[in-house]
Description:
Elements: H1 2-9, E1 11-17, H2 21-30, E2 35-42, E3 45-51, H3 55-64, E4 68-75, H4 77-104, E5 110-114, H5 117-129, H6 143-153, E6 157-165, E7 168-175, E8 189-192, E9 197-206, E10 208-209, E11 216-217, E12 222-225, E13 227-228, E14 237-238, E15 242-258, E16 260-278, E17 281-285, E18 294-303, E19 311-327, H7 330-346, E20 355-365, E21 368-380, E22 383-386
Parallel strand pairs: 5-7
Antiparallel strand pairs: 1-3, 1-4, 2-3, 6-7, 8-12, 8-22, 9-11, 9-15, 10-12, 13-14, 15-21, 16-17, 16-19, 18-19, 20-21
Amino acid sequence: MSKLWRILTGYVSIKAAIPRLSRFLAMCKNKGIPLYDFCDLGGGKYAFTASYVHHAAVMELLNQCGADGIQQTRRGLLPKVLQLRFRMGLIAGTALVLLLAAGLSPFVWFIRIAGPSDLSMRVTKDLQTMGITPGTPWSKVDMNAINNRLMLSYDDVSYLILSRKGVTLLGEVYPTKEPEPFIDASRTCDIVAERSGVIQTITAYEGTPMVKAGDVVKTGDVLIEGSFFRNEGEEERFVAARGSITARVWYSASASAPITGAVLTPTGNSCMARTLFLGGWQIPLGEGAPYERYRKTLVERTPVVGGFLPCEIITEECKEVVAQTEDATYAEAEAQAVAKARMLALKQVPTGTVLTGETASSALMEGEVTATVYFTAEVPLGTPRYHDEQ
Length: 390
């Protein structure tokens, strides 16, 4: 009868090397844990069986006694039932996920536009204006029509393509180069500088060049005059000036950083935090970072079910920092000021401009380090100024 009861309730067959056997047996007896079919296998190894309900307690005692090479096999009806219940839960969970995927995949849940930040933000905002937001049915999203409508409304975009991946609307946007200014050939005009710079090259197709390579020009200076003399002694002829001009120009910005101030110093402590993004909700997975102040760095973005659910898990590394008031060195304050000035200067650079150089200068003024960053670029220069508008 007892054997039948053990089969019904389940038991575990265990083999292990137990260096402190006497202590293990005494601890089992004190805790009221019966052991069955105890057998000496030789070489300090033993085999025995224990009730399934005492399985966890036996494993804990084996670890306390320094047991090694533990092998265990679960037998009986109860373990099989529990294993089947786990599998049924897994099957039910899988079925639920598939049902959710089938129910939610017909909708847009994420919108991601790749490209320059200003253009990608504008495309995302225009899509929202057109009614394309998380939760919009895919049946109402005509990719070609939306793409064509957006392209017609942008003068500074050369390429835009939208596509679908699971529940995500993906987009790629590329800026166009600045077109050369249109010149009305029926009206006389000069070509003037629209900003200051140093002339690199100048070729006049119509009119008379007024500057040469190496000349410094200011905004409004005439680069190519819309008039010339065909022969000496003849009257001056007026034309619509045209030509090709390049100049070296600068984009600059200044920023300051204090010598004395609060500095966020890493402590070396870090942890991983995971957040479940489900549609428009954010659900923390776990207790989050146990720090008062910390910096977050994106580690991984994992879509659920291959991107067919409005669900993804964001993994971020949280690094603890503490605020300390201290005197920074000149070099540290200068580095902070240069970083701020650099970001401000980059905002002035037109999209698509190729930078050819970067310099920075700094000075200590009233307890702060003020830095100025200069970006150099070679760009086309010149815009028409018509005589009849002067």
